[in-house]
Amino acid sequence: MGTSSARTQIPMRVDLDEAREQIAAALDGAPINPRLPYAEQLHAQLRRAIVRGRLPPGTPLSEVAIASAVGVSRTPVREALRLLVQEELVLVFPQAGTLVAPVRLGLIHQSRFIRRALECANLADLVKCVNDAQLAELEGLIAGQRAALDAGCTDEFFRLDEAMHRRMLEFTGREGVWSQIEASKLHFDRVRWLLLERVTEHAERAFREHKVIIQRLAARDGTRLVKSMHQHIDAVANHLLELRGRAPEGYLVD
Predict the structure, then answer these.
(1) Are residues 167 and 134 in the same domain?
(2) How far apart are CA 228 and CA 223, in angstroms?
(3) N or C: lower Cβ tally within 10 Å for the chain?
(4) In which domain, by residue range, is 169 found?
(5) Which residues pair with 104 in a beta bridge?
């Protein structure tokens, strides 16, 4: 199902009860809806836990432990893991086991390039047609971000951050482009969540950059608007060396 990195250790056998408890804690009691496909739900739940660092790189992912933790058979678990392998979030070692993949810097740079190209191109068009109602909605999202930061609610800040970027694409009729960006930025988001959880200034910096972006959009200043978005998306890369220096060995790789 996948290939391993030479820098990633082959997973060792772990206690089933411990593994089950770790999976259950990482999924935070997310329920499985019996009316919907199990594999799709498990894929979404495991991907969220990996991207948000609740299942950090190197965590063993036993089919038996996952199935036991959520109360399903191993078949949908196997399919969910297969999808995670395709997204390069999971590594499989034949005859040895499965574990969460390290954060690969190369994938981060690729996703950053894709996001920067698409969002900056979209803003170059949006600045020509944005209306007052749309600007008011974006300003409301900015106000919500401020409130989330003041309340120390990282999850809510992240949700409103995503909503702001998504709405700017929807305003130009490019709803499908956001889906493409979401698929490409999984690895980018792994670093974003690491920064939001562990670098207190990151969220405040992101908020300040959001304010500038909306201000320049309102001023119809296309040149500086696109430059601001370019810098905003690139900002995460500036923290990579710092993160690599303090992250556990094997957490981030080239």
Answers:
(1) yes
(2) 9
(3) C
(4) 104-253
(5) 253
